[in-house]
Amino acid sequence: MKLGIFTDCHYSSAELTCGRRRCNQSLRKIEEAMNHFTDEACELVLCLGDLLDKEKTLEEEAENLKAVSRLLDRYSTPMMCIMGNHDGFSFSKDEFYEILGENRRPKNLEADGKTLLFLDACYYTDGTAYCHERPEWKNSFYPHLKELKELLQKATDEVYVFLHQNLEPQAEINHRVKNGDDVIAILEESGKVKKVFQGHYHRGSNAEHNGIEYVTFPALCEDENRFYIVEI
Ligand SMILES: [Fe+2]
Ligand SMILES: [Fe+2]
Fold first, then answer.
1. Which of 232, 217, 230, 223 is nearest to 50 (CA)?
2. Which residues surround ligand 2, an ion (CB under 5 A)?
3. Which pLDDT value is given to residue 71?
């Protein structure tokens, strides 16, 4: 299966934030990525979160999300977008996909004997979902451990996991899911998980831990455009 992947677009009207994020270039960069994925006949496009960055008002952010949705509507390749912390601090999960498109809400799938699982770690350690009032990006938690175990029991022998935040022990501590140890214990125990694909840590990284490969893609919004084709 040929996947087109990009992450951390941080699209907004800002020219430059955090010294490196060229937020207002991201719509053009997403278009470049989508054109490339179309030319290369990717079967599925995935965004691994932080699609948007902050504006002065939530209404402006909703307009930005609509602009991304209109752009994606021009392409026939199926596309799904995991929410990142920036998205979760502006929109509830339902609000986000209502604007971006319900068909772009991640759904676990099986194809060619492979299982793709999408995890949402946009929760606080108390188990509640991210909200506008608490932009605590270092407080990331995956609350659905029991469901994950069950999904892995039912899955094919080759599983690929996708999420925004980072799981592996080598990850930069502030970017790591707080119960990452519990999550990876379940992934390892299944014996089925080959790779975990992540965003969030803008510099990107590659790591291996107990037989599972962890690939963190560099952010699309920084420096040159960054998007990737992955064959699984
Ligand atoms: Fe980000
Ligand atoms: Fe993030």
1. 217
2. 50, 84-85, 200
3. 98
Cα separation of the two ends of the chain? 5
Quote the ligand 2 centre to 69 CA distance (angstroms).
Answer: 20
Calculate how far, in angstroms, residue 112's C-alpha sits from the geometric centre of ligand 1. Answer: 31
User: Ligand 2: distance of its center to the CA of 112 in Å?
Assistant: 31
Q: Say whether pTM exceeds 0.90.
A: yes
Ligand 2 centroid from CA 50, angstroms:
5
Distance in Å, CA 220 to ligand 1 centroid: 9
Give the span between the Cα atoms of 179 and 191, in whole angstroms: 20
pLDDT tens-digit map of 44-80:
999 999 999 999 999 999 999 999 999 999 999 999 9
Residue ranges of domains in the chain, CATH in brackets: 2-231 (3.60.21.10)
Does residue 17 contact residue 58 with C-beta atoms inside 8 Å? no
Residue 177 φ/ψ, nearest 5 degrees: -60, 135
DSSP annotation of 224? S
